Amino acid sequence: MCFTIPARQFYRIFGTLALFISILYPAAAQRLSGKVVDKTNNSPLIGVSAVWRGTTKGTSTDAAGNFTLQLADAATSEIIVSYLGYKADTIDVSGKTAVTVALTSTGSLKEVVVEGQQTRYSALTPTNSQIITNRDLEKSACCNLAESFETNASVEVTTTDAVSGAKQIQMLGLDGSYTLLTTDNVPALRGLSTPYRLNYLSGTYIESIDIIKGMGSVLNGYESISGQVNVKLRDPEKTERLYLNLYGNSLAKFDANLNVSAQVSPKWSTLLMLHSDHLGNRVDRNKDGFMDLALGTHHNVYNKWKYKHGDTWVSEFGFNALRETKLGGQMDYTKGEPVSPTQRYGTESETDRLSFYNKTSYTFPGKPYQSLGFISSGVHHKFSSLYGRRHYNGEQNTGDLRFIFQSIIGHTGHTYKVGASFLYDDYTERLEQTRLARTERVPGIFAEYIFNNAENLTIVAGARTDLHNLYGTVFTPRLNVKYDLTPNTIFRVATGKGFRVANPIAENTAALVSNRVFAFRETLEPEKAWNLGGSFTQYFELGGRPGAFITDYYYTTFQNQVVADMYSSANQVEFYNLQGRSFSRSFQAELQYEVLKGFDVKTAYKYFDVQTTYNGSLQQRPMIPQHRFFVNLGFATPFDKWRADLTTQYFGQMPLAYMEDHSGAANVRKSDAFYTLNGQVSRAFKRWELYVGGENLLNFRQPDAIRGADNPFGADFDASMVWGPITGRVIYAGIRFKIE
């Protein structure tokens, strides 16, 4: 397809690249930049000390193994590089502006696994980032991505309806569709996969999760509005050779997970990850005639390969295939029931998904700060589903290409990244007689400039310009600023713009589990929003124990939003473009502290004010609590022989957007306030680990979760107003086996 770019747009695009390459360049001072790696495997070493010989002027390496020293601080032409467990090295850097140092392990220290207090909020990143470590993931069942956030206060996981069992995340009070989900920084599980995407990634595939609030990097596209969740999958080089996890719970749901890794050759390594789960037991604890949780079988395979050639070439690619079937509805519903007056209500879905990705980078010899990267990914996602008598089918084919060049302007205090991307999205959906189809072709260019004075200020300014074949030029600016008042007192500010094309049916499948008619009032336009916010982080030590206090506030305002209106009618969900205001105000305060050795406490309070204009009236968005409290207690004996975790959450009242009668006036109810309590105890042996736990231990269940359950094909039937747990208390147990 051919694009004609007016001169005015061309200069705007070109200016995006030029602006961030030229800014602040004249102010650059002479510095020595370097990188420290492990001599055996070339992996970057974090926290290495680099000091000018004969002085106390020095620094330490960052998360990528990089460091910067002022040439003006030098007393000699040599630097001393030292790190615990490695042989110190003295390097002559005369005449050089960049060096790479490879340290050799002493071999005299036995391997020590440190599992103590970990900083979950990063002090290094310019964005407000929180890390869910592998150790955090093992505090709960973590059978899939949805359960990976149970011990985290920043992301909420909610059940969308009382029949299908689908779950979604919320961040800053906004639906998960406004959060960019990536795996290894590659956009993934977007578009039509939204309803069940949290089921599509097994917890045993995950090494850690980075949660970024507010605007992230322009390198990953324009879709992020409330934040980004980056799932780091296990690394073929570093993960266990064998990892087995077996799980079962009181609902008779069973999971089996197996990871096998191998170093095929000095340059090649691979990792095969397998996951299967099955629920075949029909459960109706609230006696409403409907299964509390949909039956289902899920098979998932993920294969990763990694290639490393010296200090220059690194390539990684992976393949993922899954198949999932689900069946829910009334207790005696059987698959494929013909339409008849005696037909029972049920939901069915079958999903097939294939995806791949490749990440290849080339680092220029002698220039560890300069590299060229190529990222590609592709997805084929197809599903067919049934909700009562409504058929909903869809198919998505996606291709994504990115080229990124990274270098410095004078020294590593001024770093820039420039690149180009191309996104291809082809969607086809059919809901009864309504067919939605579109093909997006979006070439784009982007630039990002990073200023770091190596002391207390980091600025990341980025922008991208994309040419959307359906919606024209999309300009996306973003800015992140980090200022360290002291090494333990950190301020961050972030602002930027997001743009996304909504998939209204896929993002509102909960409303399909009702007899509401899907009504499209007009042609829907893309969603556009600005996000502005900031955070304050204070690390401290009290009684010789470490702690951290973090507070943040974010304001998101929409220029346009696809409104799913369930306020105006009891029998319809109307879709139309925003006419008025829509915004989200999010405040969070969190305290982390190690009360006693091995005993950690995390507590948080969250406040949400999320409002949207429905038919000219500004109202609170449904099923979002204004007040939420979170407490997590974690205890571990030395070497993690015994571990115990307890998490309790309080959810305030939430508005429920539907009418109780047909008088024509909206009658909006509110939910109850409630608590949940989850806990787990685990016992570790040399290679084995046993764990037992419980979810919703207080056994709270939402009363009357399904409206009109006695007449599911009647006008009043609605199972989409879910604000609390449906299944009640669930007890589980499992076993982990590892060979390093």
From TrEMBL:
> What is the protein's membrane topology class?
Multi-pass membrane protein
Per the database record, which ranges form the TonB-dependent receptor-like beta-barrel domain? 291-697
Organism equals Pontibacter virosus
Q: Which InterPro entries match?
A: Beta-barrel_TonB (IPR000531), Beta-barrel_TonB_sf (IPR036942), CarboxyPept-like_regulatory (IPR008969), Plug_dom (IPR012910), Plug_dom_sf (IPR037066), TonB-dep_rcpt-like (IPR039426)
Q: Where, per UniProt, does this protein localize?
A: Cell outer membrane
What are the record keywords, sorted?
Cell outer membrane, Membrane, Receptor, Signal, TonB box, Transmembrane, Transmembrane beta strand, Transport
> Is Protein transport given among the entry's keywords?
no
**Which lineage is the organism of this entry classified under, starting from the top rank?**
Bacteria, Pseudomonadati, Bacteroidota, Cytophagia, Cytophagales
- What protein name does the entry list? Outer membrane cobalamin receptor
Cellular component per GO? cell outer membrane
Query: Per the database record, which ranges form the TonB-dependent receptor plug domain?
Result: 125-227
Major site of localization recorded for this protein: membrane
Lineage top rank: taxon? Bacteria
